[in-house]
UniProtKB/TrEMBL annotation:
Keywords: Phosphoprotein, Signal. Pfam families: Reg_prop. This is Two component regulator with propeller domain. GO terms for molecular function: phosphorelay sensor kinase activity. InterPro entries: Reg_prop, WD40/YVTN_repeat-like_dom_sf. Residues 1-25 form the signal peptide. Gene3D superfamilies: YVTN repeat-like/Quinoprotein amine dehydrogenase.
Length: 373
């Protein structure tokens, strides 16, 4: 079935198969908690999808949204790209020098030094102008995940990478492309499956959603095709015991202990260097580790098709039944997550940005602030 990338998404995560690395694997049944919350609405903030949330070294909160790059200083929201470009933005990086990089859909990458912008596109060597992810490695190189492969920028020029080592999907595989934020004027839902082999160089293998460097220096890439690991010379597809790959990995993080976490169409997985452990088979869009080691996800609810913000308690991550707390939100899909300096949890959705205050309010209810225009 031909995938149409110009359509809005909102529901259904269907494919959830057990995945194993070619060593040993575990699956955990979670103990579910649900938190009561009270909603608060304020007359601020973006009114469209917020994909990524970051806090800079000065405490400002930055949002990559469908309306542009928006900065929140604790009092007001400012769209800093409105005079530069009206593009939809997916990702934000503050590099080690304090400069910012913004990934856009269709207009390449914007570099911002606090005073002026510089735009990088395919004309400058970028692999593709549709960019969804930005990452800085240990050497200070900036990596861009695009819909045409990965690009590495060394400060002078780009080097592009294709994940062509990924094996073709067999006829028995179904690759679920997941709920994808495609941008049309009309709201609609499109669910795509590939029931036939994909060519070795199929675009899905090079549509990069996530990049992370592990403790050994290898780079992990999550794509809409397969997740791969790059050792500096070759790309290796991560497979289970049946030689089936991790598909449509949307988020990859490295936690404080060096474990690698993957989230996507196959659920939430942790790799400790030897064993892959599964925590849920529900679709996971974003993973985040807070300062206490708790793992947060934006994902489909364990009990239904609605989306929730989930917290996996750090003290129970090694238990057979980890403690999972679900925070329900009135939104059709949830995206990026951030723990702010004050301990509050910010997260994005289709309808804007939210703040979850983790401390009890009014004696019993925790609050979710919905920042709306």
């Amino acid at each position: 079935m031909k995938n149409k990338r110009n359509i809005f998404y909102s529901l259904l995560i269907i494919m959830a198969s057990l995945i194993y690395y070619p060593v040993e694997a575990q699956q955990k049944d979670a103990r579910q908690n649900v938190v009561k919350t009270k909603d608060i609405t304020t007359a601020h903030g973006p009114n469209s999808i917020v994909r990524t949330i970051k806090q800079d070294r000065h405490g400002n909160i930055w949002l990559a949204s469908g309306e542009g790059i928006i900065r929140y200083d604790g009092k007001s929201f400012t769209n800093i790209t409105i005079k530069v470009n009206s593009a939809r933005f997916f990702s934000i990086l503050e590099d080690r020098k304090g400069n910012f990089w913004f990934a856009s859909i269709g207009s390449g990458v914007y570099y911002y030094n606090g005073k002026s912008f510089r735009n990088f596109t395919t004309k400058d060597g970028l692999a593709n102008d549709r960019v969804t992810n930005i990452y800085e490695d240990k050497s200070g190189h900036i990596w861009f995940g695009t819909e045409g492969g990965a690009s590495r920028y060394d400060g002078k020029s780009f080097q592009n990478f294709k994940m062509n080592e990924a094996r073709p999907v067999t006829e028995t595989d179904s690759v679920y492309t997941g709920p994808e934020p495609v941008h049309t004027e009309a709201d609609s839902v499109h669910i795509s499956f590939y029931q036939h082999p994909l060519p070795k160089n199929h675009w899905m293998h090079n549509d990069v959603n996530a990049i992370i460097e592990d403790k050994t220096g290898k780079l992990w890439f999550g794509t809409r095709g397969y997740a791969t690991v790059y050792d500096g010379k070759t790309f290796t597809t991560i497979t289970n015991n049946n030689c089936k790959p991790f598909t449509n990995v949307r988020s990859i993080i490295k936690d404080k202990k060096g474990n690698i976490w993957l989230g996507g169409a196959d659920g939430l997985w942790r790799y400790d260097g030897k064993i892959f452990t599964n925590f849920t088979q529900k679709f996971v869009d974003y993973i985040y580790e807070d300062k206490n080691g708790n793992i947060w996800t934006s994902s489909e609810s364990a009990k239904g098709q609605n989306w929730v913000l989930s917290r996996y308690d750090e003290k129970s991550l090694l238990d057979n039944k980890p403690i999972v707390t679900e925070i329900k939100v009135n939104d059709n899909m949830l995206c990026g997550i951030l723990e702010a300096n004050d301990g509050s949890i910010w997260f994005g959705g289709l309808k804007g940005v939210y703040r979850y205050d983790t401390h009890l309010q009014n004696g019993e209810e925790k609050t979710i602030t919905d920042f709306k225009k």
